[in-house]
């Protein structure tokens, strides 16, 4: 679970054409706990396919990886200590792959760069300029969500410096995404505006770190390494007791 040091994020625009339980999901691309949590999100999306919708938000826990790890892990071995911590965490979960040199080689300078690029991908999807028809391997995710996952894989599994624009565009080309359009929205400031517009929502919900699930218009908030059954129970509670119905409990 990773606390937030600073301010960038992304504001999704909810699909109001259907009645969904909207789950605002706040995470940092470089957060190991969010990487671990993807399997839970996929299962929730599968089990509640016509009932829930995840709205992805980015928070810059690793806005400056050097400052964060140097300061918070100074007495624990710095990057080597943090590497050991991540490897220890991952040893408890057999559904993920982690490179043996993670956080020791090709270290990204900032997750904000990744978020900026991904936000631009999101905007293209919002404009219906890209869909999962481009990529048959989305596995129930939107193309935007699949791009987030691919960026996490390239970092955690492949130990690539995903903060570098060349690495980001490489991922996009591998997914047959329109790189020129993605870059254009970054140049014009459109992607940055979408990132910054989420600050009020982050502050409103008082998000403590990555990952955080916010349900029921902020009434239910789950932070950190939360198990699937706990998240599912919160969703089921909303389904069984809609907010427009009276309940004694």
General description of the model:
- By secondary structure, the chain is of the alpha+beta class.
- It has a single domain (2-240), classed as Glutaredoxin.
- Helix content is 46%, strand content 10%.
- The protein has helices spanning 32-47, 65-72, 78-90, 111-126, 143-156, 165-174, 179-188, 190-196, 199-205, 228-240; strands spanning 2-3, 21-27, 52-58, 209-210, 212-215, 220-223.
- Strands 3-2-5-6 form a 4-stranded mixed sheet, covered by helices on one side.
- A hairpin with a 4-residue loop joins strand 5 (212-215) and strand 6 (220-223).
- Helix 4 (111-126) packs antiparallel against helix 5, helix 4 packs across helix 7 and helix 4 packs across helix 8.
- The longest helix is centred in the N-terminal third of the chain and has 16 residues, at 32-47.
What is this structure, in a nutshell?
The chain has 249 residues and is of the alpha+beta class. The protein has 10 helices and 6 strands.
Which keywords apply here?
single chain; 249 residues; Glutaredoxin; four-stranded mixed β-sheet; two-stranded antiparallel ribbon; globular
Percentage beta strand: 5-15%
Mean pLDDT: 89
* Shape estimate: globular
Major pleated sheet: 4 strands, mixed
What is the helix fraction of residues, given as a range? 40-55%
CATH class, anyone? Alpha Beta
Order of helices and strands: EEHEHHHHHHHHEEEH
Widest sheet, order of strands? 3-2-5-6
Q: Can you name the CATH architecture?
A: 3-Layer(aba) Sandwich
Rg value: 18 Å
Poorly predicted tracts of residues: 5-18
- The CATH topology corresponds to Glutaredoxin
N- to C-terminal distance: 30 Å
Alpha-beta classification: alpha+beta
User: Could you give me the name of the CATH homologous superfamily?
Assistant: Glutaredoxin
- How many helical elements? 10
């Amino acid at each position: 679970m990773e606390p937030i040091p600073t301010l960038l994020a992304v504001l999704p625009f909810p699909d109001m054409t259907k009645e969904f339980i909207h789950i605002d999901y706040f995470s940092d691309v470089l957060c190991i706990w969010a990487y671990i949590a993807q399997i839970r999100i996929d299962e929730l999306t599968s089990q509640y396919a016509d009932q829930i919708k995840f709205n992805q938000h980015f928070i810059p826990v690793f806005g400056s990886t050097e400052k964060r790890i140097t300061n918070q892990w100074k007495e624990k071995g710095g990057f080597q200590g943090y590497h050991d911590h991540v490897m220890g965490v991952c040893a408890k979960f057999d559904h993920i792959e982690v490179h043996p040199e993670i956080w020791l080689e090709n270290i990204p300078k900032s997750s904000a760069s990744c978020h900026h690029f991904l936000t631009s991908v999101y905007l293209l999807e919002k404009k219906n300029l890209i869909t999962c028809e481009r990529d048959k391997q989305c596995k129930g995710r939107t193309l935007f969500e699949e791009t987030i996952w691919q960026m996490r894989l390239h970092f955690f599994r492949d130990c690539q410096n995903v903060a570098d624009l060349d690495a980001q565009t490489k991922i996009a080309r591998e997914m047959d995404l329109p790189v020129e359009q993605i870059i254009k929205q970054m140049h014009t400031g459109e992607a940055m505006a979408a990132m910054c517009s989420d600050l009020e929502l982050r502050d409103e919900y008082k998000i403590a770190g990555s990952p955080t699930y916010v349900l029921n218009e902020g009434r239910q908030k789950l932070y950190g390494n939360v198990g699937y059954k706990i998240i599912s129970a919160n969703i089921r509670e909303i389904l069984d007791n809609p907010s427009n119905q009276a309940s004694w409990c």
